[in-house]
Structure formats: structure tokens, C-alpha cells
Amino acid sequence: MEGVTLTSRAIVFAICAGATAFILALFATSAGHFTADSAARAVIPAIVCGAMCWASAERSIASTAAALDSAIERIARAADGDLNSPIPREVEKCVPQLAGAMDSLFDQLHNNLENVQRLAMFDPVTGLANRVNFRRNCERALGEMGRERNGALFFIDLDRFKNVNDTLGHAMGDGLLGMVANRLRAVADRFASAEGLRPLLGRLAGDEFTMFYPDILDVTEADRIGRAILFALGEPFDLAGQQVKLGASVGVAMRPRHGLTLTDLMRAADAAMYHAKANGRGRVEHFSDTLADAIADRARLENDLRDAVDNDDFALVFQPQICARTGSVVGAEALLRWRHPDGLRMPGNFIGRAEETGLIVEIGQWVTGTVAQTIARWADAGIGQRLAVNISARQIDHVSFFRSLRQALRDADAPASLLELEITENLAMTCSDDVLAAIAALRDDGASVAIDDFGTGYSNLARLRRLPVDRIKLDHSMIRNVADTAEARTIAQAVIALIHGIGCTVVAEGIENEAEADVLRVIGCDILQGYAIGEPMAEAEFIDWMREGNRRLIA
User: Fold this and answer.
1) 151, 142 Cβ separation under 8 angstroms
2) Three-class DSSP category at 420
3) First to last CA, the chain
């Protein structure tokens, strides 16, 4: 289309030039008298002028067309990613405006692509390599290292950073992360190898950073670097005129001892970092065989738990609760047991891992379903004692848990009045208003609610008074030594009086001997539970034990 336009312009130009030459020649040869002869004589220079103009224009058109072809080829190369080659000279010579526009366009595209690359590969807050970029560079460095060459991966997690975000805001938090990155750069520069191999730095996410040294002498040097990191991040940060102290927990994995691949090293350094946090924070921990065994044990435990969930390898046992005044059985607590191939396992051996992996939700669903069926059987058999069941934090976090519990009771045709939910003291103090409303609704259906492990947390008495609670269970630590020391008896008696004052029944659990039971009766405890009262037992055994006890009371 452009070629046709240029040709049209050349033809018009040649015709105009020829016409102008004709008019001028006509005036020059006619001497004021226009005749056929003078017109004929004027045509000849007009034709010559027009032809020459056309020839000149045609050459210009050919040059412009060739320049346009070069421009098209250059644009095609740019579409394939070549933004650095120069603009062809013929384009600059014949179509300078087009050359300038192409040059500006390619510069803009190049800058845009660099920005996209920067955003894709670098953390915008700290300027460090992001997770993808760090992994890519680290894997490349590991691939170039000899098999026996030493390296060290540091996994750095900031301590108390969440407090900064919560109190000063995320903008201040981002500024603080930038300062942390600068201090880590200074540590990296200080310990760069003599061969000029710089360590790799990255920000993985949130307040987690990584540093990889591809050339390190030994564990001693890794310890020095770790201490330097702790010192650098332990110094106060000046944040908008405020002195902010952070600190860090650092995990270290050594190559080749702890792995040859980045995946192995990251797993080891991450485990070591969490070990540092668990041991008080603000410290450097190396991955070790002990940690490796612990990781393997946790993985094996998780797999075994998944198999147990799939195969229903759990069971409930029942520990009786008796009235302190009459000795009659008023209820039981359902306790979970795992029928492991190596023997029966107590909850303390697996509940923690179940909560970490989320399997506690599935296990909890099995427990509530089984409890509902048990309550239904007891109601049909005329057993009116309530059955208590513990609820984990992971379960109670979801309001849907209460819907599923109600559904389980309806499906089993089990009366809610025989159900008691037990939640820990800390959980009761921190659960949301939605959860409290769901608990209150279940209580309105007839269920009762108990706070478990009372005395192990930090209760807000005003909140405790407002909670929808019927019973409060004293932790064993609250009743230990009540039979031996006056101080223990005084504390226990005061707590019992406080609980009675807010209208709740007191349950003492973990009673280990008859002397403790006698003292608790005297100082006003309402319900007793523990091995001194009765051990956890299977359902049939519990029912026989309960009926035998009732017969003794009647006799």
C-alpha cells in the first residue's frame, strides 16, 4: 500500500514538472503568439523534463522500498527477541523518522522486558534474588562444584518480625526487611572466598532468607559465618526514629555431608533452623544425625497415622468420673488410643504430629462419630451418665466442626444431653466469638461444656465468667501435693471456691491416690477422676464397672 502511494506521488510530481516545463517553453518560444508550432516545440522539453523527474523519483521510490523491506526484516527479528541489533543504515538514510521511531520502540521494549525480568527474578522489597532465582543460581553453582568440595547453606528466619508488622505496619516492616538484606550483604562480602566466589543471597518468603557459600573450608568457618549473621541481625535497627531489635534463628546444612542437591540441603537447613527456634531462638544450629533420625521418625509417624485413619485403627477407652460426695458414677471421659502394629499407643505419642499435619481433623471426625454412636447405645440401654470428649484447637478453629457434630448426633439418634465437650483453658481464652456462639448453640441443645487443664494457662476471669461453661477441670498440677502440704491445699481450695463463685462444677482429674481424693472431698471438689478412681477401660468393661459400683452403693 505504501509503494502504491509513493508511485502515485512520483507520477503526479513528473506530470506537474512536465506541465511546468511545457508552459515555460511555450512562453519562451511563442513570442506572445500561441500557435500549433509553438505548442509542438514546447511539448518536447516538457516530455524530457517529466521523464527525467520520473526517473529521479523512481530511483527514490526504489531506495525507500528497499529501506522499508530492511525495516520489516528488522522488526521481524525484534519479534523473535533481538532488540539489540542496530537499525539498518538504509532505513536511517531513506526514512529517518521511521528509524527514530523503531529505535525508541525497541529501547522501550528492552526496558520493559528488563523490568519484567527483575520482577520475576528479584524480590522488590529487598532487591535480593527471589525463591525461583535463588534456586536456579544455587542449583547451577552446585552442578559446577566438585563432588568433594565443601559448601554451606544457611537458612535464616527472623525472630519477632511479626511484632513489627503488627505494631508499626507493613510499610515499616518492608523497610526493615530492606535493612536486614543490607546487613546480610555485608556479611556475605566479609566472608567471600579468596577466589572471588561470592555467596548467593535470597529471600524465600516473608521473613525467611537464605545464603549459600559455594566454597567454604569446614564447619568451623560455617560457625563463624553463623555467628556473624546473628551479630549483624541482633544489633538494633533504627526504624523511623525507633530502635527495633529482631534477632534470628539460623539453620546450617553442609555440602556434601548433608546432601549434594539443593532439595536435600534446603530440607536439612530448614530442619536445623526449626530446631534453633525450638531451643530458644537467637542461635545457630547445624543439621545432625539426631535431627535426621527425628525427621525420619516424623515422616514414618505421619505415614503410619495416614494408614491408621484409612484402616480405622483407633479405639476409645473410658475413664470414670464419680461424685465426690456420694461415690456414684456421673460420667466418663472418652480417651483415644491407637491400635498400632507395635502395640497400643497413647495420644501423647501421636497427637502432636497429627495436629502438625492436619490429620487431627480426620481423627477428630472419627472420634465425634464414634462418641455419637456410643451415646446412642447408652441411651438405648438406659445409661444416663454423660460422655466427655476432648476437642483440639485445629477442630474448634472451624465452625463447620459444630455442624458436623450436630449431624453426627442426629445420624446416630443420640441425645445431646449425654455429650460433654472439653476444651483447654488456653483455647477457651482465645477462640473467636463465632466459635463461642457455636458452643453456646450446642449447649442450648442440651450438651454441656467443660474447660480442661485449668491452671496451666492464663485465664481472664472476666472472660471466664462470660463463657458458656458448665464444668471446670482442675489440671493435675493444681492438685498435686494437696495431701502433703498446707500451701497446696489452700491454693486448691481457693480455686475451687472461685469456680463455684461463677456457677460452675469443679472436676479434679489425675487423682493418683486415695489420700488426694479424701482431701479434695473435704475442700469442696464436686467430681473426681483419675487412676485412683478407675483406670481407662473398654466400653463393655466400663459399663460392668459402673453397674458394679452402683450395686455397691445400693447395698
Assistant:
1) yes
2) strand
3) 115
